[in-house]
Amino acid sequence: MHIQINFSPSVTSYSEIVYGNITSFILRSSTIMTTTLNLIHYGIADNQFNVPVQFFLSNTSGSSNSSVDLVLELLNFTTSFTYDPDISVTLASPESSNADLLPLLALTALVIPLVFIVLAVLGVTFVAAKWCVRRHRVHSAGVVAFNMRTGLEKTM
Predict the structure, then answer these.
(1) Residues with Cβ < 8 Å from 94, sequence gap 6 or more?
(2) Cα Rg of the chain (Å, integer)
(3) How many domains does the chain have?
(4) Residues 66 and 114 placed together within one structural domain of the fold
(5) Residue 11 · residue 32 · CB < 8 Å
(6) What is the pLDDT of residues 36-92, one digit of tens each?
(7) 78 and 56, same structural domain?
């Protein structure tokens, strides 16, 4: 199988790292974008068999964009072949650093506890309301009402 991926801005460098049964290709487009392809060395043929997958990557750069050709060599299969690559893209600017995400992390650390506190208050309010209604029913169960006009007694 031949897959062509077009990049703009063009890929300036790429590297290959092998971790056991996973190969990672890291493609860099100057300081703006980093694309990572994590490819597993196995796929599932015919929903039964783990079969090896071989792959090759070649970079064919142009002036304003570049194409990366990814070739997957698959073994023969009868009905289906399942393969799940992991492709991620990270955008960055030359002045950015990991510290730029600190306000986002602080906001997340504030919002999540607030949501749990609101849910807890709603839960306690609901339980207290149910308890008050049940308590009112228990106290009013033995009350006798007397109607002065008709003289009838009514037990509630």
Answers:
(1) 31, 32
(2) 33
(3) 2
(4) no
(5) no
(6) 888 888 889 898 888 998 888 876 655 555 777 888 888 888 888 888 877 776 666
(7) yes
Phi, psi of 13 (to 5 degrees): -160, 155
Query: Which stretches does DSSP call E strand in the chain?
Result: 2-7, 13-19, 22-29, 33-40, 42-45, 49-52, 54-61, 66-73, 81-82, 86-91, 144-146, 153-155
CB 50 within 8 A of CB 42: yes
Q: Token digits for 93?
A: 């600017």
Q: How far is CA 150 from the centre of its chain?
A: 70
Q: What is the span of the domain harbouring residue 118?
A: 104-155
Is 14 part of any domain? yes
Instruction: Please check whether residue 45 is in contact with residue 77, taking contact to mean a CB–CB distance below 8 angstroms.
Output: yes
Q: Which of 42, 67, 93 is the last residue of a domain?
A: 93
What are residue 8's phi and psi, to 5 degrees? -145, 115
Query: pTM to 2 decimals?
Result: 0.50
